[in-house]
Amino acid sequence: MNATVDLTGKVTLITGATGGVGRAVATAFHTAGARLALVSRSHDRLENLAAKVGLDDTGCILREADLRDPAQAERLVAETVSCFGRLDIVLNLIGSWEAGRLATTSDERWQDVLATNLHSVFYVMRAAAVHLPDDGVILNIGGELPIEGRGGQLAYAVAKSGVITLTKSAALELKERGIRVNALLPKNVDTPLNRTLRPNGDASLWVQPEQVANVLLFLASPAAAAITGALIPLDGRE
Ligand SMILES: NC(=O)c1ccc[n+]([C@@H]2O[C@H](COP(=O)([O-])OP(=O)(O)OC[C@H]3O[C@@H](n4cnc5c(N)ncnc54)[C@H](OP(=O)(O)O)[C@@H]3O)[C@@H](O)[C@H]2O)c1
After folding, report:
1. Mind listing the pLDDT tens digit for each residue in 118-150?
2. Whether residue 42 has its Cβ less than 6 Å from ligand 1
3. Nearest protein Cα to ligand 1, atom 23
4. What's the pLDDT score for residue 59?
5. Which residue, judged by its Cα, is nearest atom 30 of ligand 1?
6. Is 41 in the pocket of ligand 1 (CB under 6 A)?
7. What pLDDT shows up at residue 149?
8. In terms of DSSP H, where are the helices of the chain?
9. What whole-number distance in Å separates Cα of residue 113 and Cα of residue 122?
10. Residue 156 bears catalytic tag
11. Ligand 1 contact via 208 beta carbon (within 6 Å)
């Protein structure tokens, strides 16, 4: 059990669970007592994660889904509710960073980056919102100030700007039901992918995945009941 956050019994759907951030988040929410529905396109990666975290069938389900497809997002949410009888918390950690400039981004890459980083989040939120209770929580991940633009990663920046507007707009719509919607805006997180992409970076200054998990735990807890529509920068020490 996490020393400060108790989410015993809370059913938590985590997209992007097999990613560098998702693995730490799944571990932290399991430790806090949540029951988990973990999602990825790869059954093997989900099995590896479950084994590493020490998850068993009683408090966790593993689901393969390609969340660029709205039908798969609907099915995922329906299966989670069917399995656990409820859904309390949605953590949208899905994403895929990709470089690309205005002149060289193909139609196919534009559509795929938008589908992976933005449309997927919308599909899961839309499917989940009808099931969430009055103290339900949705937490998304944007990125470091994409609203100011980001040359060289054009489609990704546009998608993350969309996640920010989606978060704030849904927070306004769902506020009357007591459902809270917030987003984190991390700078570089110390993930294996970032270590590969930035071999000369100083990872000791980056945000640790466990620090992302701690903020998500807080935002998912009753202690954060007054917070909705917030965009929370996680700058680490950069
Ligand atoms: N790492 C950073 O420095 C950083 C900074 C700012 C924001 N973020 C954001 O934080 C989130 C987590 O980042 P991360 O570093 O953990 O990313 P990551 O390691 O690349 O993991 C991405 C996750 O998304 C899943 N995914 C990708 N495409 C999918 C699809 N079509 N359907 C279903 N699942 C899919 C992947 O699962 P499978 O491949 O197994 O399907 C994986 O679990 C992302 O939204 C990212 O944009 C990260």
Report:
1. 999 999 999 999 999 999 999 999 988 667 888
2. yes
3. 16
4. 83
5. 66
6. yes
7. 85
8. 20-31, 43-53, 70-84, 107-114, 120-129, 154-174, 192-197, 209-220
9. 14
10. yes
11. no
